[in-house]
Design a protein that fits this description.
alpha+beta, globular, Immunoglobulin-like, 7-stranded antiparallel β-sheet
Length: 775
């Protein structure tokens, strides 16, 4: 890597990579311990296993846990010990795996290496090894092989744990110490559940950091710190390493006595322990301990939840829509270290500051940090962001405001961190020097992972039955053949502002040609909604035709006496709406009869629920969080939020998979939810509520394009600030999740601030659309 990489921006001088022989954040393989297990593959297997355990709620009932510990202690360990007769602890164990309940107990037992070794030595006079099986095909083979051996060995003991989870009779604790260990780790997966953790590039970087961590412990065992606190990436590797006890014992022989100086995964570390760990790491390696995706999350910062919700994605049901492109997010941290010489040169009169901007998207983003606000000769986290991959990277500008009443600032230096450059570095970390090494900057990122889709409907022109816009242009192109029918139209934009669907709502029948014929409103049962996949085909300017392919429809049904509205979707789902207007609250409630997937139950909850709740993010006001949540529960229905929650055997307490705002026609949903169903829900609710209230609730009567923010100037979710580092000076709603201030972020400019809306008589008058919406 070149020692002097010059940025292409204007004013860029003296910018170089830290380290001329290797990427920042890496150390020589000769300086670290040798590991004898493939930790990258093993860690991926660990994450997959922990997720299965977390979703298997039956495993964690007390009767099942007691039975699992008994089966492990009395049946499995004697069995696996006999199968390794004649072998030493360093030899490979037989390629078999026990059932999942025993695997889980075994996994927990190994997390205390000293206790595990003592247990094995006292019972079997050797350490029982675990086979290194990392792929699902070999796991299935090992499990089936174990079943055959088990049945022969224990014909009266079922291979699977068949104890009724509600059966508390005749249960006793066979090994209290193992039981305690298992109970402590019940929520382990929550610490390691971020989707980027299973990405290969993340695991490679985590492995390197783990080896550095072990080397630091080995060399600086007497460092004066009571206990070291592993960051989350190091923790993943450490737990994985320990879960192969014979390998772990052989690898860390020379530092066995030091591992007890590390905070256990189930313990809450003290803030001073976290800080001491960070200082030791900085002193040894001269780089920040924390990085994107690997915070020392046992400290206070963990109390502040990430503003971004992303989930492990097994399936994306929207790949069938060619018009949709997935949305990828990544986490970014920027650390700054200022040379102490700066203080001697500048004193307290420095007007220099760092400005953060994005390479692409959100061109209005400018976040400034004064150089004087950074401590000298130590690393400090300056920015913590969540960015869409389409932002390309970030730019840091060193600027000087000058003095006196001079307005503006002068660019002194520029450094750029591109996501693609960071991804090419093993450590996912790059360092730069600014202004002749006076200021050092380190940026780290997580691998981009697929996040929730984010779609927004914006007003568009009236169309006819065929999907063509009502216009003289279309009339002439059709040789003055009349245009029949009137449909309200909305264009669906994705997170990057691309057109991906067109929503059409039928309001009128009749035809128009030169002669002034007047269309009439159709009955409620004929006011169907359809969704077409793709973008408009423009013929002249903004005049065009909707895409041909219809991918979804909603048809009004005659509601029963108890219902206010009912819709039948082409997906097979049915939406039912109640509204009790006599109550003090809104009285709105929804029910969705879902047919896909067949093994789930769905609830549509009014408001922002579960992960979409906006909690108090200030550590200084934790006592107000409960009050803030109570206020959230009492938000008026007029905000238009509905949370879709699915219940299944894997998620008996429910999983929020989508957030809709039917008033603004905005939907955010996990890839496992169908985009067309979400849009049908949103539009059907808006039309129904408008009809119930006899008013144009969501400005459905707007029939032309309203002025939107210029693409890339102020994006919906391209950049989100972590609340832990947010400040009053950075209060833009566009740097927060859209649903925290939905109207400011998502609503088109208010109609009153738009140029006069001059509708063509050909489209039909206001009376037609008023009747077509609320009559």
């Amino acid at each position: 890597m070149s020692a002097a990489v010059r940025d292409g921006g204007s004013g860029s001088v003296g910018i170089s990579d830290i380290g001329s022989t290797r990427s920042f954040g890496e150390i020589s393989e000769d300086d670290t311990l040798k590991l004898t297990v493939n930790l990258v593959s093993a860690a991926r297997r660990t994450l997959r296993f922990l997720r299965i355990v977390d979703e298997s709620h039956w495993l964690h009932t007390r009767p099942t846990t007691l039975e699992s510990v008994r089966r492990y202690d009395e049946l499995w360990m004697p069995l696996i010990s006999d199968l390794t007769v004649g072998s030493t602890s360093t030899h490979h164990p037989p390629m078999i795996l026990p059932p999942i309940d025993i695997q889980w107990v075994w996994f927990c037992h190994t997390f205390n290496p000293v206790f595990y070794r003592q247990y094995c030595d006292s019972r079997f006079s050797k350490i029982i090894a675990k086979p290194a099986i990392f792929d699902e095909e070999n796991e299935e083979y090992a499990l089936n092989r174990c079943r055959d051996i088990w049945i022969r060995r224990y014909p009266s003991e079922p291979f699977e744990n068949e104890l009724d989870s509600d059966d508390n009779s005749a249960l006793c604790v066979t090994n209290e110490d193992i039981l305690t260990q298992v109970l402590k780790l019940r929520n382990l997966y929550a610490k390691l559940a971020e989707p980027y953790m299973s990405e290969t590039v993340y695991l490679i970087a985590a492995k390197q950091r783990y080896k550095s961590y072990l080397s630091m412990m080995l060399r600086y065992a007497d460092h004066g710190c009571a206990r070291l606190v592993p960051a989350s990436d190091i923790l993943l590797m450490w737990l994985t390493h320990q879960s192969y006890p014979t390998v772990y014992a052989a690898d860390v022989t020379q530092m066995e006595g030091d591992t007890g100086k590390v905070a256990a995964v189930w313990e809450v570390a003290k803030e001073e322990e976290v800080e001491e760990t960070k200082k030791l790491w900085e002193r040894v390696f001269d780089r920040p301990y924390e990085k994107a995706g690997s915070a020392a999350n046992l400290g206070a910062a963990a109390k502040v939840k990430s503003p971004v919700y992303w989930d492990v994605t097994d399936e994306d049901v929207n790949t069938k829509y060619e018009s949709m492109l997935p949305r990828f997010l990544l986490e970014v941290c920027v650390f700054v270290k200022v040379d102490s010489k700066v203080k001697a040169l500048q004193g307290n009169k420095s007007h220099e500051f760092l400005r953060l901007r994005m390479v692409r998207c959100h061109r209005e983003l400018k976040i400034d940090k004064q150089i004087s606000s950074f401590p000298f000769d130590s690393w400090q986290k300056a920015w913590h962001l969540y960015c869409e991959f389409g932002t390309k990277g970030l730019v840091l500008e060193l600027r000087d405001r000058g003095g006196g009443c001079f307005k503006g600032s002068t660019l002194q230096d520029t450094v750029t961190f591109l996501w693609n450059d960071l991804l090419r570095v093993t450590s996912l970390t790059l360092g730069r020097e600014v202004d002749d090494q006076r200021v050092r900057v380190v940026s780290s990122m997580t691998p981009p992972v697929q996040a929730s889709y984010l779609l927004k409907c914006v007003p568009d022109r009236v169309t006819d039955d065929s999907g063509a816009m009502i216009s003289d242009v279309i009339l002439r192109m059709n040789q003055y053949r009349p245009q029949e029918g009137r449909w309200l139209s909305r264009t669906v934009l994705d997170h990057a502002g691309r057109e991906c669907f067109v929503v059409r709502m039928r309001v009128g029948e009749g035809f128009w040609r030169r002669g002034g014929e007047t269309p009439s409103a159709v009955k409620w049962e004929d006011r169907i909604i359809e969704i077409r996949e793709g973008s408009w085909s423009y013929v002249v300017g903004s005049i065009g035709r909707a895409p041909v392919k219809v991918v979804g429809t909603a048809t009004p049904k005659e509601p029963s006496e108890q219902l206010k509205a009912s819709w039948k979707f082409s997906t097979g789902d049915e939406l039912m709406i109640w509204w009790e207007s006599s109550t003090s609250k809104s009285g709105l409630s929804f029910h969705l009869n879902s047919v896909t997937p067949p093994d789930t139950m769905v609830k549509l909850l009014i408001g922002r629920k579960m992960q979409y709740q906006r909690r108090n993010i200030s550590l200084k006001h934790e006592e107000n969080e409960e009050n803030a949540n109570d206020e959230q529960e009492n938000e008026p229905e007029e905000d238009g939020f509905v949370t879709l929650v699915r219940f299944s055997e894997e998620n008996p307490i429910g999983k929020a998979t989508a957030l809709l705002n039917w008033k603004l026609l905005v939907v955010e949903f996990l890839p496992e939810e169908d985009a067309v169903l979400m849009l049908l829900l949103c539009v059907s609710i808006l039309r129904s509520v408008s009809e119930m209230r006899k008013e144009d609730v969501g400005k459905l009567s707007v029939r032309q394009r309203l002025k939107e923010a210029k693409l890339g100037a102020r994006d919906w979710g391209s950049v989100t600030l972590h609340p832990f580092l947010s400040s009053p000076s950075v209060s833009s709603p566009h740097l927060q999740p859209w649903y925290w201030n939905a109207k400011a972020v998502m609503a088109s400019d208010d109609v009153t601030r738009q140029p006069a809306l001059n509708y063509s008589p050909a489209e039909g008058g206001d009376r037609l659309f008023k009747r077509g919406i609320i009559d």
